[in-house]
Amino acid sequence: MRMSTVHLSFTSVLLGLCLVNGPALAANLKPFKDELFSSQAILETRDKGDFQTVDYQEMRDINGRDEIPERKVKSPYVSLGVRHQQSDETLNLGDAGTLDVTRTGVTDGAKFTVIFIHGRGGDRRLGADDYRFGGNFNRLKNLAVENGGTYYAPTVRSFDQAGVAQIAGLINYASLHSGGHPVVLSCASMGSFICWGMTRNVKAVAQLSGMAILGGASDPAFTESAAFKRKLPIWFTHGSRDSVYAAGDQIGLYDKLHRGGYPCRFTLFLTGSHGTPVRMTDWRAALNWLIR
Q1: How far from 247 is each of 8, 121, 264, 274, CA to CA, in Å?
Q2: Smallest Cα–Cα separation from 275: which of 126, 144, 77?
Q3: DSSP of 31-46, one letter per residue?
């Protein structure tokens, strides 16, 4: 399984506090292996810390971290007991049809929900893989379970409006089953088409707490969307050497939004490639910013 056409990796998304329509409390998730996942060095900052350049080194962050590079992370990075809270399911989403997902965490009453959208060539197994991507999805699953949340990794059948409609159905399902608690949508690579499409869906935007765009495409028409009008927080993260979606395009959108006072942040992984954000994102920091 690959995201788009390039191998996957992930660095830290160092997230701070931005306000949506007035003051709000961010989450304070309990730590989980922070000493392994939250130690990235910040090389440069601007915009009062909203834009950060983070050190990424392939020899250290892939070869030094993995027992088998890009295939199996070293054992200290994972905790497999969380698999007891994991289930492959096919959800009936009404008008949106059925959707195959891997759910980790409770079905009902989740304090928060995280949804991860894979890129081209992936399916629900990608976001549920414990050993690939530096163990980062295993950490996300553990963070969800240990903090009373739920994590969904769905199989996206297409990255067009049909795919957007299905994930909108999942957002609605998660919101209803959690009693209206926060829902975070994160989209990587071509999966970003789902995130950008979702920004036009008024109902889904109202149910979302925030979005993360990881090594994705830019959307120059985003300022016309319902999400822009609501000021839905967005965190961008990108590898500086991404050969699929140029980092400069995404930085340009961030700069435009930030100048207008929009709640957004950007992490640039210096020397990182297309998949770097998936391996290295600091999920605890990200969720503490996006859940409000």
Answers
A1: 16, 22, 16, 9
A2: 126
A3: PSSHHHHS-PPEEEEE
